[in-house]
Write a structure and sequence with these properties.
Elements lengths: L4 H6 L7 E4 L3 E5 L7 E7 L14 H17 L6 E4 L15 E5 L9
Organism: Faecalibacterium gallinarum
Protein name: Histidine triad nucleotide-binding protein
GO molecular function: catalytic activity
C-alpha cells in the first residue's frame, strides 16, 4: 500500500528504531512508549488488521508470537508482558496495518481501559 505508514517503515522509507528484522517481520520501538519496554511487531506483508487474517496466515502468526517471546526474553521481561492488537476505529486502531504492541516492565492493570 503506497500510503500505509507501516508499509513505508517496513520498506525503509521512514526510519524506525529497529529491534528485529527478517524477511517477514519488523519489530521496532514505539515512538510514544506506554511502558518501559514498548515495541511493535508488524508483518512486512500488508494486512489491514487482525480482522483480515485467514487460516493461510497461521504460520505468519506463529512466527510473530515466537519472535515476540524471543525478544521479550532478550529484553529481560521475565515478570511478564502484554501483547495487544487493536482492530478498527472503536478498538483503537490508528494505523490500518496489522501490528502488535508489546508492553512490559511495569504492572499492567486489567481491564485495560
Amino acid at each position: 500500500m503506497n500510503d500505509c505508514l507501516f508499509c513505508k517503515i517496513a520498506a525503509g522509507e521512514i526510519p524506525s528504531n529497529k529491534l528485529y528484522e527478517d524477511d517477514q517481520l519488523l519489530a521496532f520501538y514505539d515512538i510514544d512508549p506506554q511502558a518501559p519496554v514498548h515495541f511493535l511487531v508488524i508483518p512486512k506483508k500488508h494486512i489491514e488488521s487482525a480482522a483480515a487474517l485467514t487460516e493461510a496466515d497461521g504460520a505468519l502468526l506463529g512466527h510473530i508470537f515466537a519472535v515476540i517471546a524471543r525478544l521479550c526474553g532478550e529484553l529481560g521481561c521475565e515478570g511478564g508482558y502484554r501483547v495487544v492488537s487493536n482492530v478498527g476505529e472503536d478498538g483503537g486502531q490508528s494505523v490500518k496495518h496489522l501490528h502488535f504492541h508489546v508492553l512490559a516492565k511495569r504492572s499492567l492493570a486489567w481491564p485495560p481501559g
